[in-house]
Design a protein that fits this description.
Helix content: 55-70%
Low-confidence stretches: none
Order of helices and strands: HHHHH
Oligomer: single chain
Number of strands: 0
Distance between the termini: 154 Å
């Protein structure tokens, strides 16, 4: 019979580095730049950098537009408030009692006699005669 021996477990369960793990560390330490394959991938990296710059620009542009929109909304609210107050002041100033009070300070008083309509009866003549009569007066 053969003698019993211990198995070397270190070799059996030794973890092999994962490809993703290797590529991640090669990016971090910069060793991926020394490989010849990187030259083939440069256009793709430039494309990714362009997309990243485009996304950054787009986010700044969107934030700028949101700020402008908020400023315009605040200005609209302020103008609406100014419109309402001006309109109410105008309605108050144009009241008959307010006009009478302001004119009273200048010495004018409101008439208590109602106005009358004066009607002048038109002569029953032809159209052309009425025109000639009015032009002479």
């Amino acid at each position: 019979m053969s003698a019993n021996s211990y198995k070397n477990t270190n070799e059996k369960y030794k973890k092999k580095p994962n490809k993703l793990f290797k590529s991640f560390f090669s990016i971090i330490d910069g060793s991926f730049l020394t490989k010849s394959r990187i030259i083939d991938l440069l256009p793709f990296f430039f494309y990714l950098m362009g997309l990243a710059l485009l996304l950054i620009f787009n986010s700044y542009y969107a934030e700028k537009k949101v700020r402008e929109k908020e400023e315009l909304r605040n200005e609209l609210i302020e103008l609406r408030i100014r419109y309402i107050t001006t309109k109410s002041e105008l309605m108050f100033i144009t009241n008959q009692s307010e006009i009478a009070r302001k004119l009273e300070e200048r010495g004018l008083v409101e008439s208590t006699i109602p106005p009358r309509v004066i009607e002048i009866p038109e002569k029953k003549r032809g159209f052309l005669l009425n025109i000639f009569d009015r032009s002479n007066n």
